[in-house]
Amino acid sequence: MLFGAHHEWGKLRDVVIGISPAEDFVVFHEDSCRWLTPEGLEFSLRHSGKRLIDVDPEWAHRIERQVDALAELVAREGVTVHRPQRLKGDERTFLAPNGEGAQLFARDAMIVVDTHVIDASLRLKCRQRERYGLRSLVQKAVATRGAHWSSVPLGSPGGVDGPFLEGGDTLLNGREIYVGISGCASDLAGADWLQALLGDTYRVIPVALKSHVLHLDCAMALIQPGLLIHCPQKLIDGLPMSLRDWDKIEVSPEEATLLATNGLVLEAGRVIVDADNRRVIDELRRRKVDVIPLPFDAPIRLGGGLRCAHHPLLRESVLA
């Protein structure tokens, strides 16, 4: 296998990790930003359209340093690390005159399932152009590694009519694929599109989220076979049936807001976790999971954590 992923925990061999040049990120606000904390909402409304480096330069530089430190750590673990191409000129304003310019959260604009690489359909207008920074990686995977390329049709510019399907909502568990549905990102039309692409050998399962939850990986994480982290208060109907007998680390809504469910799994039993989530780190270590703490608080203030910042291109795992 040269390309693809079947599970959240297969040994990571090849990955794309986002970039966030300090001078690129532009503060944004759109109607679907219900996941923001009250402080984050006030900040985005007050500074929308401004460069973060002009508003809070320390924060902008800290984001850049922390995501680069993640890429360096993962590379030291023996994983091949790719970074998106930096958008320039018209690419940076295509589909939105202002808004987010950084390409930090590589998870969302693409989806890898089996050997499929999928251009996602993002609900936020200012993020729809992120696929172009990943395009050269996708084309190379198709040309040399056997990947099968598809694109979800773009939803309406107003973020109302889908299909919408985002990588942060899509969790892999072999033949079961979970897609979070909250109204902030992916929708049922996106889940139906994915089911049609994958065919009857897969089961795409929508997971209902509270309306203020951005993505499924803000409420649930699959760490290794039989072990997960979740926030019950963010899941309307609870966990998917096949996960209900797993060992569970339960986190509070406050911990989930700090993205305690959002780590980077290097392989089953080894995971990178934001250093501020100390209780979750302790719970994982009690279960003999090898945890690497890494400071990632600056991107988390934007609403995205360690899982959001990376997307696997190759995980070694067996599809039953």
User: CATH H level of one domain: which superfamily?
Assistant: L-arginine/glycine Amidinotransferase, Chain A
Helix content: 10-25%
Q: Under the CATH scheme, which architecture of one domain would be assigned?
A: 5-stranded Propeller
Give the strand line-up of the largest sheet: 2-1-15
Please give the CATH class of one domain. Answer: Alpha Beta
Major sheet attributes: 3 strands, mixed
Structural class: alpha/beta
CATH fold-level topology of one domain: L-arginine/glycine Amidinotransferase, Chain A
Count of helix runs = 8
Number of DSSP E strands: 15
Task: Give the averaged pLDDT, no decimals.
Answer: 93
Tell me the overall shape: globular
Name the beta content range: 15-25%
Radius of gyration: 18 Å
Unreliable segments of 5+ consecutive residues? none
Order of helices and strands: EHHHEEEHEEEHEEEEHEEHEHE
Note the topology.
Blueprint: E1 11-17, H1 38-47, H2 52-55, H3 57-76, E2 80-82, E3 110-113, E4 116-119, H4 131-145, E5 148-151, E6 170-173, E7 176-181, H5 188-198, E8 203-208, E9 220-224, E10 227-230, E11 247-250, H6 253-257, E12 264-267, E13 270-274, H7 278-286, E14 290-294, H8 297-300, E15 310-316
Parallel strand pairs: 1-2, 4-5, 7-8, 10-11, 13-14
Antiparallel strand pairs: 1-15, 3-4, 6-7, 9-10, 12-13
Features:
single chain, 320 residues, alpha/beta, L-arginine/glycine Amidinotransferase, Chain A, 3-stranded mixed sheet, 8 helices, 15 strands, 24% helix, globular
